[in-house]
């Protein structure tokens, strides 16, 4: 169907400029809009879901005034923030002060270019898709640093230093987790990584969920999940926004939509790391059991359900654990997670050279 729409648009004109440049560019822009429009809705309504789920866990109601079940609350919040005055500190660097929020949210949205939603449903099906995502998301730390420095505030600068050190530390652990998965799948393409999880003894028996990477790579899966929480500066790793210490971290001087964009970037990153966890460890769009009933459900539905469960785990963690000290966070990343991932990388490599290799 998608190819038919593309071919139909291509044949609207026989002019060379239309077939070689005009329609291909328009087609790419259309695909970007189709991808980003639902994503921005998901990001907005993740704030509603977080408040409702936290309310349930804390035996209270959560947002329930604006619209049925409070479903119009994100729209009301957006309108409120859009109409607020944008205040820039007198001594701030104007250009960099405005660039900070853009640099924070841009990578969280641009990385979706290589995320597949089905076997052939992806904006850019590049062979090194995982590498593209790593390269794009690594830029996000610059938005934090720029925002903290350009604000010309000691509180903002200290928050930026904390955030950048934390993000870089846990990016290393996440990178090693990716490396283990790439080694077992033999590919950097996310579609092929999902396909590799459909093979094995358990999959031949119809128990697909036992052939997914979460089981043979359980320690790596746990390291990735915890590192993802720290990478997105979520509770209990949100010392960047430690209210009793440095107010709101690197975004303390921002107001209105500038402040909102940083939060949108955080929630967009939550969706991104959650769908990556599903693609690499939880079988992506594959059904958990190979049966007629489960196979009748479209793959994108399974992908969405799994991603929602993983992103809800972020909220569950927030409602459960107290905030860690900064030295505990850095110790966990450098002295525990990085050695664990390195050791497991060597163990997996050794097992893959034996007859007990479960990824054959």
UniProtKB/TrEMBL annotation:
The answer to whether the entry has keyword NAD is yes
Topologically, how does it sit relative to the membrane? Multi-pass membrane protein
Tree of life domain = Bacteria
Cited InterPro entries: NADH_UbQ_OxRdtase_su1/FPO (IPR001694), NADH_UbQ_OxRdtase_su1_CS (IPR018086)
Subunit field text: NDH-1 is composed of 14 different subunits. Subunits NuoA, H, J, K, L, M, N constitute the membrane sector of the complex.
Which family does the entry's similarity section mention?
Answer: Belongs to the complex I subunit 1 family.
Function according to Swiss-Prot or TrEMBL: NDH-1 shuttles electrons from NADH, via FMN and iron-sulfur (Fe-S) centers, to quinones in the respiratory chain. The immediate electron acceptor for the enzyme in this species is believed to be ubiquinone. Couples the redox reaction to proton translocation (for every two electrons transferred, four hydrogen ions are translocated across the cytoplasmic membrane), and thus conserves the redox energy in a proton gradient. This subunit may bind ubiquinone.
The record ties this protein, via PANTHER family, to: NADH DEHYDROGENASE SUBUNIT 1, NADH-UBIQUINONE OXIDOREDUCTASE CHAIN 1
Name assigned to this protein: NADH-quinone oxidoreductase subunit H
- This protein's species is Tepidimonas fonticaldi
